[in-house]
Structure formats: structure tokens, C-alpha cells
């Protein structure tokens, strides 16, 4: 969804922390660097709200403010205000007019601010954020107010990019849904518009190396197909991506070649299939493009010493993926966190399989409202990252965290309805010995039987309609080689399809990563680690 025109609103904003019950403030008392969360050193603040005298996070609002002026040549455009992610509840005002409220710390959201803009003048943008973390009953992942052990520093406020985007007033592209179908050699594409039901046609063009490979016409809101005669598939060792151009055209106006587009976006897609299947021995396996390869990965927490939830640079996001592949792994389990779109872009481009977790809620019963909110956020997480070929599995819960009052079969069925193109793991650590001890939540649903094996070597057993995976094992980098020698035979007997070693980096009080927390060095010789991975799981990986 790339357009040529946009305005980045990252940078120094003003901020103040007030009592939650207070009205919108009229003055600020500090500077904060967006998009780094309040607690991060890179934000320029580096404090938790609870550490500030007289402040309690549950009863406090973090306010942001900045001004901007739009270019004069945007005068005939509709202006959209985008937030990559804000943790957790964001109330947005423009020129003292309330634009709306968004709840959810991991999904992007947008407001149409056209009518409230002052064109040719300064505009004042204010955002009030309330973030209850563990006391709200909402998804927060590994964040806690009192970091210790395997739970880490919280992330409050704006933690992903904020930007403005001009689009055509009459009709523009709102979203793309891309579904590759390698069995029928086609891409199924659905384009939604703003406003809905606009009188336009959709033209899609697939390209490779600047050369047109396929093209098709369709209607907004209805799926149509791009046929690929000889599709080049996406693999971790050959992560080929097609370029995609999508144009909106008026319903009339002459030959298609000469009609100017109402709106154009650039995108990309990978021809990749994630499914279950039987191998030559009749064992149920995780399949990639109808072939069985061992999905061998790292547990990736996605925390940073300087940015906490936000990587310091785009190069840093890329580095973690490159380091994972350098060590001979072909996959990462993104653990209880959802990253900015750029992380998944690099996974797509560099060739890293991803098991994507839904961030957990705190343990204990949840109210009906909290369960509804969780499902809403789950739907937005799946929808927001749907088009990335790197993602091959959704992980709904982890080690029993926050699932006590959920109907697991119903949640799994709903997730499968949201996305029937990927494997659904209803709970990672539903069996085995993990940090939570033995859990008993495996209700026989989903596509995977997932054990955590920290204190024993009892592997999960594949079933007729579920593949077996070890969703976590370890820890201790120095033990990786000996552990791998014990676990690798489980591929053949009983038939384990995937392994996740804990973990990619050290994180705060945890010192079991393949890399140090600041990524300055590997904790063991990377060439030896890579050699062990390739020894047991082979090269190439398909």
C-alpha cells in the first residue's frame, strides 16, 4: 500500500502526564521523540509512569501534542492520519475537535481529518493515551509494571510511525487482500475503496523485474484473479516477490490504456502455500508449498535496550532477521508481540518463515467485555498482517496465559474463518514442561499439537489431522548443540515438524539469547551454530 506522497509525523512532540479524569491539557511540560515509547531511553523520557511521584499508571493519561502544516498542492486531496500502533487506548484531537478513539496496542488505525484541517495554516494534533498494562484485562504480551524474570519493561503510548497521506477525494484504495493460490497458479485479489461502493474499476498488474507478468480487471469489494502461467514460488532460500500495481479507474472515459487512474498503490506478493499434508511415511506434517521442510526457528521477543518495543532503526529490524538466518535457522516465532509492517517486509524479502503470536492477556478470568476486546484485537492483528507471505502460522495462546474463560474450540474456529490460508495453533505449550508447568488446555483443536520441552525430552505425537511441533525448548546457548542432537531425531520419530529454540537475544534479566541484548555480539560462535543446524536439518532447506 505504498503511495508516492506522504508526510512523516515522527520526531519531537510535546508531552505531559495528567490525571485520567482531567480534561485535555492546555500546556505541556516536556519533549518526547515519537515513535519511541515513554519508558525507552530513545524517547528522551525513559521513565515508567508509576515511577513518577504522584502518578499511577491506571489513573493517568499521557498526552502528546505537535503542530503541522500540509503542502499547498494537497489542497484537492482527502487527508488521512495514520497511526502504526499506540498502546493502548488513544483519543485523537485535531484543532480541538475529537477525531475518535482507538483501543488496541498492536494494530494500525486511521482517521479522515479532511474536514477539520486548516489549509495553509498550522494544525494542532493532540493524542491522549491511557495504558492499563496488566491491570486492564487486555492484550499486553510480555509487558509488566514491575519487570522481572521473563517479563519485561512496559511500552506506553505511541510506539510506531505516525504519518499523513493525501488520497483522491472522489475514490481511493482503502485496502488490499492478497491470497496466493499456487495449486491453481493465480493470485486472488480483493480491493476495497474509500468510500465503499465507489463507481470505479480496479486494474491489477503483476510485474517481475519491471516486466509485466499478468494483468486483470475487477470490481471493488469483489475478489478477482491474476493468472500466473509459471509462478515462481516463495521459499526461505529463494524469497521471490512479485511487484504489484493496483489502479482505480473511472467506469467510463475511453480505452483503459489512456484513462488516468483515480488512485494508484504499489505493493508486492509472494506465491506461497502453508498447509498440512502427509509425508512419504504417512505422517501429518506442516507443509510449505506442498513439501515438508523442518521449520527450525528462534523465539523472538522483539525487545530492545534503547527502544524497548521500538527498534532504533530499520537496519536494526533487518539485522535480527539476517542474524537468525546466518545461524542456520529458517523461521522465527514472534513471541507475544506484533511488529511494525517493516519487520514483516524484511521477513518477506529476506526469506524467514514466521509463526505469529497473538499477544497474551494477564492470567485469570476475563469479563465478557474483555473477551470481546481480545477477539476484536485478534481479528485486527490477523487482518493487518494477512498479506505477508512470511507468516505461515497464527499462535492464539501461550502456556495457558489468559485463556481460562475462553472456549478454545470456538476461538480457534473463528481464527480459521478469519484466515483459512494458514495453520492455526490454538495454544503453544498446551503440553510438555514449560515455564508454567504442565498445562492441560489441549482440547484437540487447531492444526498443531504444540509442546514446550524445557525439563524433559518427551516429544508431541502427530495426529491424523494435526502436525506435531515443539513450540519452545532450551534454554542456554551453550547447551544448544547438545540439545539439538537429542531433539533432531524427533523429526523422524515420532514425526515433529517444527522446533523453536529459546531465544534470539538476551532480554533484560534473561541471558539465554543467541545474541546479546544490544546485538553487539553472538553469545557463541555463529559459524559453529550454523554448522550444527545444517548438519541435523540439511542444506538446502527444501
Characterization of this structure:
By secondary structure, this protein is mainly beta. The protein folds into 3 domains: 7-168, Jelly Rolls, CATH 2.60.120; 172-261, Immunoglobulins (Immunoglobulin-like); 274-537, Alpha-Beta Barrel (TIM Barrel), CATH 3.20.20. Helix content is 13%, strand content 34%. It is built from 6 helices and 33 strands. The strands form 8 sheets. Strands 29-28-27-26-25-33-32-31-30 form a 9-stranded parallel β-sheet. It has a 6-stranded antiparallel β-sheet with strand order 3-2-4-10-7-8, with no helix packed on it. A hairpin with a 2-residue loop joins strand 7 and strand 8. It starts with 6 loop residues before the first strand and ends in a 5-residue tail after the last helix.
CATH homologous superfamily caption of the largest domain? Glycosidases
Rg of Cα set: 24 Å
How many helices?
6
CATH topology of the largest domain: TIM Barrel
Overall helicity: 10-25%
The pLDDT mean sits at 94
Global outline: globular
Amino acid at each position: 500500500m505504498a503511495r508516492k506522497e506522504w508526510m512523516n509525523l515522527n520526531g519531537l512532540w510535546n508531552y505531559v502526564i495528567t490525571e485520567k479524569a482531567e480534561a485535555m491539557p492546555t500546556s505541556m511540560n516536556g519533549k518526547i521523540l515519537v515513535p519511541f515509547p515513554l519508558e525507552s531511553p530513545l524517547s528522551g523520557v525513559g521513565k515508567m509512569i508509576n515511577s513518577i511521584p504522584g502518578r499511577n499508571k491506571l489513573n493517568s493519561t499521557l498526552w502528546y501534542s505537535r503542530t503541522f502544516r500540509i503542502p499547498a498542492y494537497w489542497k484537492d486531496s482527502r487527508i488521512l492520519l495514520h497511526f502504526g500502533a499506540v498502546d493502548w487506548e488513544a483519543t485523537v484531537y485535531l484543532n480541538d475537535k475529537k477525531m475518535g478513539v482507538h483501543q488496541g496496542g498492536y494494530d494500525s488505525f486511521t482517521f479522515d481529518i479532511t474536514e477539520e484541517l486548516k489549509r495553509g495554516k498550522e494544525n494542532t494534533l493532540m493524542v491522549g493515551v491511557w495504558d492499563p498494562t496488566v491491570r486492564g484485562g487486555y492484550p499486553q504480551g510480555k509487558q509488566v509494571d514491575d519487570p522481572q524474570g521473563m517479563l519485561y519493561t512496559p511500552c506506553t503510548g505511541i510506539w510506531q510511525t505516525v504519518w499523513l497521506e493525501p488520497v483522491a477525494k472522489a475514490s481511493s484504495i482503502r485496502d488490499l487482500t492478497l491470497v496466493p493460490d499456487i495449486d491453481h497458479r493465480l493470485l486472488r485479489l480483493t480491493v476495497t475503496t474509500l468510500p465503499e461502493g465507489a463507481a470505479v474499476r480496479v486494474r491489477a498488474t503483476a510485474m517481475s523485474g519491471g516486466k509485466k507478468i499478468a494483468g486483470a480487471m475487477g470490481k471493488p469489494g469483489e475478489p478477482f484473479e491474476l493468472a500466473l502461467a509459471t509462478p515462481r514460488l516463495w521459499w526461505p532460500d529463494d524469497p521471490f516477490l512479485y511487484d504489484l500495481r493496483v489502479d482505480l479507474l473511472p467506469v467510463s472515459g475511453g480505452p483503459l490504456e489512456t484513462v488516468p487512474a483515480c488512485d494508484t498503490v504499489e505493493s508486492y506478493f509472494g506465491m506461497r502455500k502453508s498447509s498440512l499434508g502427509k509425508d512419504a511415511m504417512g505422517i501429518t506434517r506442516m507443509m510449505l508449498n506442498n513439501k515438508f521442510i523442518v521449520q527450525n526457528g528462534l523465539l523472538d521477543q522483539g525487545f530492545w535496550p534503547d527502544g524497548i518495543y521500538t527498534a532504533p532503526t530499520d537496519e536494526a529490524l533487518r539485522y535480527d532477521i539476517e542474524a537468525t538466518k546466518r545461524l542456520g535457522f529458517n523461521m522465527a516465532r514472534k513471541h507475544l508481540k506484533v511488529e511494525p509492517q517493516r519487520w514483516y517486509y524484511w521477513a518477506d524479502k529476506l526469506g524467514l518463515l514466521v509463526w505469529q503470536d497473538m499477544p497474551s492477556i494477564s492470567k485469570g478470568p476475563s469479563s465478557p467485555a474483555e473477551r470481546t476486546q481480545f477477539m476484536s484485537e485478534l481479528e485486527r492483528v490477523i487482518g493487518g498482517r494477512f498479506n505477508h507471505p512470511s507468516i505461515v502460522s497464527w499462535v492464539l495462546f501461550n502456556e495457558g496465559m489468559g485463556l481460562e474463560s475462553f472456549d478454545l474450540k470456538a476461538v480457534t474456529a473463528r481464527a480459521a474463518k478469519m484466515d483459512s490460508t494458514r495453520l492455526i495453533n490454538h495454544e503453544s505449550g498446551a503440553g510438555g514442561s514449560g515455564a508454567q508447568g504442565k498445562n492441560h488446555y489441549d482440547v484437540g483443536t487447531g492444526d498443531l499439537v504444540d509442546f514446550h520441552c524445557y525439563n524433559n525430552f518427551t516429544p508431541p505425537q502427530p495426529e491424523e489431522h494435526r502436525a506435531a511441533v515443539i513450540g519452545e525448548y532450551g534454554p542456554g546457548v551453550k547447551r544448544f548443540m547438545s540439545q539439538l542432537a537429542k531433539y533432531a531425531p524427533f523429526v523422524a520419530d515420532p514425526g515433529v515438524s517444527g522446533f523453536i529454540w529459546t531465544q534470539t537475544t538476551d532480554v533484560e534479566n534473561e541471558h539465554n539469547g543467541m545474541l546479546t541484548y544490544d546485538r553487539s555480539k553472538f553469545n557463541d560462535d555463529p559459524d559453529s551454530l550454523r554448522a550444527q543446524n545444517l548438519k541435523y536439518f540439511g542444506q538446502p532447506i527444501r
